[in-house]
Design brief:
Helices cover 41% and strands 21% of the residues. The chain is α/β, with parallel strands linked by helices.
Amino acid sequence: MYERVLVVEDDRSVRETATLLLERAGLRVTAVGDGRQAMEEVAGHGFDLVLLDLMLPSVDGFEICRSIRRDSQVPIVMLTARSDIADIVTGLELGADDYLTKPFQPAELLARVRAALRRPTADGAATRMQLKDLDIDVAGFRVTQAGRPVELTATEFRLLLELARSAERVVSREELLERVWGYDYLGDSRLVDMAVKRLRDKLGDDPRDPRYITTIRGAGYRVDL
């Protein structure tokens, strides 16, 4: 069964290029150029990945991302022509998993899409993990903190899980890029730092006095049991 990708991009040439590349890679592609159309497609069809431009007519990419995350953990890769890190941070905070800056290289687009599609949603190696007052339900993809549910995106959940599995050991940004995002040679280490920040915010973890995640300067991150 072919995996389905929704391409949301108002620039016709970029939209057609992305569609052609993804179809040649064996994916089923639906492409739209308007934010309202995108909302209708998301509501009416099941997609395995959304490639989402931020600047769109009628409804922007931020609102589409927010809407998708109310009901779904489908991978979202943002497409943006902006170099402003604030826009990227906003998109990631709304639940996007990754971003790609235009103009992009075909190989990089395909690598990021393939990495997002192969990311696991659960892992049968262990059904539950405990980290202080955090209960990590691996099979159920849920986290509770002192009995209260913590709303995490799929990326944030995988990040917490990988750090918990490596408790008492420093995990480098490069390791996390490979294990959480599926990148073995490309990817921006800022993805890791921004995801850690979002995770800390949701856990109420002060980086100056960490309860869960400690930054090891120049090396990476560590959680202590």
